[in-house]
Amino acid sequence: MTEQADLDLRPKLIGARIKRTEDPRLLTGLGNFVDDRQVAGVLHVAFRRSDHAHARIGPIDTAAAQAAPGVTAVFTAADFEKTVKPLRATSRMKGYYATPIRPLAHDKVRYVGEPIAGIIAESRYFAEDAAERIAIAFEPLPHVADPAEAAQRGASLLHEEAGTNVLVAREFKRGDVDAALAAAPVRVKARFRMRRRTPLALEPRACVAEYDRSRDALTFYSTTQVPGIIRDSIAEALDLPGHRIRVIAPDVGGAFGGKASLYPEEIFVCAAAHQLRRPVKWTSDRMEDFAATGQAFDEIIEAELGFDRDGRALALAADVVGDVGAYSIYPWTAALEPVQVVSFLPGPYRIEHYRGRVQAVATAKAPTGPYRGVGRPTATFVTERLMDMAAAHLGLDPKEIRLRNFVRAEDFPYRIGSGIQWDRSGFAECLTAACDRIDYAGLRQRQVQVRTAGKYFGIGIASYAELTGIGSRISVAPGMPINTGTETATVTVDSTGAVTAAFGIASHGQGLETTLAQVIAEHLGARLEDVRIVHGDSAAVAGGSGTYASRSMVLAGGAATLAATAVREKLVNAAAHLLETAPGDLVARDGRVTVAGTDRWVTFREVARAVYAEMGRLPHEARGELAASKTYDPVFGTTTSATHIAAVEIDPATLEIKIERFVVAEDCGRIVNPLIVDGQVHGGVAQGIGAALYEEIVYDVEGQLHTGSLVDYLVPSACEIPPLEVVHIESESPTTLGGFRGMGEGGTIGAPAAVANAVADALAPLGIEINELPVTPERLFRLLSAARK
Amino acid sequence: MKPVAFDYVLAESIDTTVAALAAAGGEAKILAGGQSLVPMLNFRLLRPAILVDINRIPDLAFIDERADHIAIGALTRHYRLETSPIIAEHFPVVAEAMRHVAHLAIRNRGTIGGSLSHADPAAELPMLALLLDATLHVVSPTGPRAIAAWDFFLGPLTVDLAADEMLTRVTIPKLPPVTGWSFVEVARRTGDFALAAVAVTLTLRDGLIGEARIAMTGIDETPKRADEAEALLAGRKLTADLIDAAIAAVRANVNPPTDLHASSDYRRHLIGVLTGRALADAWRRAGGEKP
Ligand SMILES: Cc1cc2nc3c(=O)[nH]c(=O)nc-3n(C[C@H](O)[C@H](O)[C@H](O)COP(=O)(O)OP(=O)(O)OC[C@H]3O[C@@H](n4cnc5c(N)ncnc54)[C@H](O)[C@@H]3O)c2cc1C
């Protein structure tokens, strides 16, 4: 039997429904989170945060705090003037202003919750008591809360050196939009609003810097998605070589983008530990999480889409104002979210003429940053609403108008007006599969019946495409100089035959310890349980950034494939000597190397002993280390697509919205583990439902935060999430190694649009459009009241 | 979110509790289930010098049936009210309402005494106390006192309790036979405080409404009885027109707050919708003719 034939016969690990191997640890309390770390002599941090949105900082009196019980030190910005270099999220974008990122507010505060002083004490209790004793003379400055006003000439400036509050403005253009729109016989247009939200991980941010006096070195444990990026940036801020800072992300309790940026608190904790030569820990509470973790969305979009009489889209024009908050978040920049909105607005459709203009406007609110889906939830909401509005106008079914406009199989690769290129993905296949699963025709019939009974029942479709697994030719954030396009895997079979695979990614709920082990075990011929995945550690590989942007399976999975294959060859070569046969006759599987078609084999352990320990068993040239380190770069990345369909019922009197059914059909290429893909879709959809119906960060006109706790900020619980049905489509294998497409974010991208369309559909007899999310009973009440007038 | 330092007293009895409260001169707080108090401590909204823990006081958690009333001890947990056969038999409206109070984990800790003393303007137990004409029994170092639920709720988080007084027991008169009931609520999510909720009992006499009671929460600074609507209903048969009149009366007499979750207008709208539904429900349960 040839090796290939044999490989095809055995059960595949890639594609298997394997339960997550990290779960027994996480579910039985054996996980190790940052706050679980017990460090002898550790000091605790509390921050005195700003209660002003925009003010000059006058004299700060810390004497009483310094003298308070249990306090070791109190730091203000002045204490870091010489020791910490401010960082800036640079970019090649024209006219972009990169705000400085410092550990503590310097001269001015620019949002409520910005840290001004850091108190280091024996316990968090002492630190909080002392924080109250700091007296700060604020000189209030004019409000900068409304992005439209802030963008005007003459507005009060948050960053005077920038000369404007518009941190960046961009335009994407193809064709002649104005002429095409003017000529379009059918046009739909609206002003859309996606409200600000917060990622709301179950585990708030935390970090502890452990100081090693013998080497003047820091080991920094942080709840981060990007240990590699944090290591590099702290090294820069403190001017230390990388081998004196190791950044470890142990078990991390969710992140959703909110832990993908460098935070002032992280710089502070490292700088304070370095200066005090003591271990220092900060665990944020939920109030701090609401006030100072990177927030998301917050865009106003004016968009117009023109069609011919057959419902073929001709031209799309959009103007986007992104309310990005006070700083340009590191390293992604303030452009990340709003620019992605205009990048993805054309969606999975053929639209010849496109113009998307965007402004990222600084306001005196917490900075916004990456959030699961980045830009695409908003873009999809806008485009999919416009599609439904056009369908209604043209008397077409929402399903039909999408089928008429999708990029067709023969059009791939297709470049949309913003410049993004789609490779072949199952756009139409996902729509059809989702409709089949939900019995779309049957639901439409039922809708007719229940409508006559006075009920509000609606069906909403949302189709989208996204770019995932982005390689080195495209930067994840516009113009960002940091390479996020490669990942490295180092696979080692040690002298006991055990397999360790080290990565630069940082799984924080995605189950990558399981899926990467599946890939390694499959390509190495190991047993799943013999593979240990090391991740979330800047020392694991020489360079790596982390887990974000639906990249880890594509990039790390590709690197795993390369490295595991290389190590298998080494194992087989060594085994060939032991078994006295040609390498071509051998297969590696289940932790053994076997002579194909026989029962003669050696275990990995025996091979490893022969290689590393037993003198003279192998010739010199077969004794190379059983290890390989490989880097994978998908160069461009690949397209992932999906269709979501929601069916909702609205109580006509109380206006409560209930999602009855929710179906997702998605194409993420080759599936490593269907159980994990389902879980990722479920979680993403739940967050998308949050964006559609519940979650909203509220600042008032003075920049005061009104959603400071989970009483005010509503996040859906299990009770609010309907059963979710997921259909997997594997259209055509993309060019990525292994055929994987990224899929971690998708659930959040489609769900807001699907729910918005369903609610609008339910209320269609009343002529109400849903152009603002979240759509709450209160907002419906106001829309209905206005419609009745 | 760490409380300021406080001393802790584990009370053995009602007497030691009120003695400790009196000795602290207004600086002490009773700790019952802690479900409302502890968040307020962590937010530093309250800074008591002493917490007096009443969780170990014997015989403070009970539901007893007497000849004409039910007596409930202050430390009785929400979950017991929800599942007690005595409550289910005499006040099914309470059992139903308790399912809307927070989540199971919180109902396992939260107490009736804590909920009534805390008096959140959107809580269920205060409205039920009003609905059922409950009497609240309190003890201070100078002796016991009984207060009608009617007089107890003074404002948001404000009740007629002195700093050295402890609520020990609630008594509720049994309802007459042929009483229908209903509890309906709208909250943003399962377990959230009500945007608006209505509890109704309708006691029928000769096929007509003998006594109507309507209690509401979430719609004012305190829970309220809908006096005007109750008066309209008395002595009548429930009809669609009467329901409309009751809804109008209710809407005209509430003063709902606006907050992040709902505007005053929407709450006013809701309270009408819920009143209509609750009346129809209670009428049906009492065996009245179809309105
Ligand atoms: C997430 C969440 C959701 C919730 N949702 C709801 C809801 O939907 N509806 C609802 O009604 N409640 C809700 N609650 C509140 C819950 O019902 C509390 O249990 C209740 O409000 C307080 O009861 P407790 O026993 O926990 O009191 P504690 O928190 O211990 O005390 C509350 C206050 O009452 C005082 N006190 C307590 N006992 C006495 C006594 N015997 N005499 C005098 N003073 C006393 C305390 O000093 C304190 O000031 C919710 C709570 C949480 C955390």
Molecular structure report:
The complex is a heterodimer of chains A (789) and B (291). Chain A is an alpha+beta fold and 789 residues long. Chain A folds into three domains: 3-32 and 486-632, 2-Layer Sandwich (Aldehyde Oxidoreductase, domain 4), CATH 3.30.365.10; 40-141 and 201-255 and 259-292, Aldehyde Oxidoreductase, domain 3, CATH 3.90.1170.50; 296-473 and 635-788, Aldehyde Oxidoreductase, domain 4, CATH 3.30.365. In chain A, 29% of the residues lie in helices and 24% in strands. In chain A, the strands form eight sheets. Chain A has a seven-stranded mixed β-sheet with strand order 3-7-1-14-11-12-13. A six-stranded mixed β-sheet of chain A has the order 9-17-16-15-10-31, with helices on both faces. Chain A has a four-stranded mixed β-sheet with strand order 20-28-29-30, sandwiched between helices. In chain A, β22, α15 (512-524) and β23 form a beta-alpha-beta unit. The N and C termini of chain A lie far apart (79 Å). Chain B folds into three domains: 7-53, Uridine Diphospho-n-acetylenolpyruvylglucosamine Reductase, domain 2 (2-Layer Sandwich), CATH 3.30.43.10; 63-173, Uridine Diphospho-n-acetylenolpyruvylglucosamine Reductase, domain 3, CATH 3.30.465; 179-285, 2-Layer Sandwich (Enolase-like, domain 1), CATH 3.30.390.50. Chain B has twelve helices and 14 strands. In chain B, the strands form four sheets. Chain B has a five-stranded antiparallel β-sheet. A four-stranded antiparallel β-sheet of chain B has the order 11-12-13-14, with helices on both faces. A three-stranded parallel β-sheet of chain B has the order 1-3-2, with helices on one face. Chain B starts with 6 loop residues before the first strand and ends in a 6-residue tail after the last helix. Chain A binds chain B through residues 124-125, 128-129, 285-287, 653-654, 656, 694, 698, 706-707, 709, 712, 714, 716-717, 719-720, 776-778, 781-782, 785, and chain B through 1-2, 4-5, 43, 186, 188-192, 195, 260-263, 265-266, 269-270, 273-274. The complex binds flavin-adenine dinucleotide. Flavin-adenine dinucleotide binds next to β2, α7, α8 and β10 of chain B.
